[in-house]
Write a structure and sequence with these properties.
Layout (H helix, E strand, L loop, with lengths): L1 E7 L1 H4 L7 H14 L3 E7 L2 H8 L7 H25 L4 E6 L7 H16 L3 E6 L13 H11 L4 E6 L4 E2 L11 E2 L1 E2 L4 H4 L14 H13 L3 E6 L4 H9 L6 E3 L1
Parallel strand pairs: 1-2, 1-5, 2-4, 3-4, 5-9, 8-10
Antiparallel strand pairs: 6-7, 9-10
Helix pairs in contact: 2-4, 3-4, 6-8
The structure holds adenosine-5'-diphosphate.
Length: 251
């Protein structure tokens, strides 16, 4: 069976004051369907914003942000649990930091856990453990974490579900004439070094971290697909039907 990593951003999973239940349910249903065809690892952002639905702490203060993440991680997982229960899918929570990839010993431990998880037909849900770590032990965004997860678990593909249809020739939020790029085989230095442009107050990455994730995987001969997580039509077409209509394939 092929293996895929699906990464979903905060903006897809949460609205200002709530978990975006309907969107999450659509995602859960797509993942359940995809599991018939692939071994799926879900990398889910959204702990900090889910925490904010419960307590209104100031996320710009580092310790408060960690507290938000610690509150939000259980809010997030309990929502996933309720929704995956509908489909009888058992989930597991795996929290990682950059250190989990810093040696062969560490990556082996992680690989073994993932392999055993699949053996028992469990869906692993991965997030960054940003609670007890120092800033230099963190990826800081789940785009690059998910690229590492994809590479080290031998996944064939990383799918990033974002608030945008794909990668455009310029930021479509500033330029209404921006055109989507269907295929990307090469990224230029200036694309990888542009300023960060996360779209919401809880998003940490913006397009740059997605491009860095793509570059990391392309360097290793793997593919990444960036598409819309609000409307999962392109993701479903791509994953289930093998059709690439919308969305950007980095290859
Ligand atoms: P997520 O929460 O899904 O990780 P982000 O807000 O971090 O999403 O990143 C996606 C945002 O990046 C888009 O909404 C868009 O505003 C911005 N962006 C900047 N340049 C581009 C570009 N060339 N193509 C697509 N999106 C871009």
């Amino acid at each position: 069976m092929k293996r895929v990593v699906i990464k979903v951003g905060s903006s897809v999973l949460t609205e200002t004051t709530n978990i975006a239940e309907e969107r999450m349910l659509c995602l859960v249903s797509l993942i359940t369907e995809a599991r018939k065809k692939y071994e799926v690892i879900l990398v889910s952002s959204g702990a900090v914003s889910a925490g904010y639905t419960a307590v209104k702490l100031n996320r710009t203060i580092p310790t408060s942000k960690k507290v938000l993440a610690s509150v939000g991680q259980s809010v997030l997982m309990s929502s996933y649990k309720n929704m995956f229960d509908i489909y009888d899918v058992t989930i597991s929570q795996i929290l990682l930091t950059e250190e989990d990839f810093d040696s062969k010993v560490h990556t082996r431990i992680f690989q073994d856990i993932i392999d055993r998880t699949f053996k028992h037909d469990i869906l692993p849900i991965v997030n960054e453990n940003d609670i007890s770590t120092t800033p230099d032990q963190l990826f800081g965004d789940n785009d690059q974490l998910s690229a590492h997860v994809a590479y080290y678990t031998g996944a064939d593909m990383l799918i990033i579900l974002s608030d945008i249809d794909g990668y455009y020739d310029s930021n479509p939020k500033d330029n209404p004439k921006a055109k989507i790029r269907k295929f990307v085989t090469e990224l230029k230095e200036e694309e990888l070094n542009q300023v960060h442009t996360p779209n919401s107050q809880f998003a940490t990455g913006g397009i740059v971290t997605k491009l860095k994730a793509a570059q990391y995987l392309m360097d290793k001969g793997r593919e990444m697909f960036l598409c819309n997580g609000y409307d999962l039509t392109s993701a479903r077409e791509f994953l289930i039907d093998g059709v690439h209509n919308k969305g950007t394939l980095f290859t």
